[in-house]
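Hi R.,

Here's the chain you asked about this morning:
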Amino acid sequence: MSEYETIIVESFAATNGDRRARPVEGQNHPVTMFVECCKKMRYGHALGTKFRIRAKVINREDGAAFLYSSYKWDYEVVQ
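And the predicted structure, written out as tokens:
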């Protein structure tokens, strides 16, 4: 899957205390998948905030897949 798609993600606190993003349940991607995205989006809003972004699946050499969205792109706060 190399095409960008519009998905809904939410911010959450990782076990190490960092703020991360993950897909919201009920979409084409598991909620366990990490999202690389705008730091301002993750830290500039309350935990649990949902966002609409454009992202695509990236596969690392070690086999771990993640969703990538450029930090330069706009995002929309959904909730």
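Helices lie at 39-43.

Let me know if you need anything else.
M.
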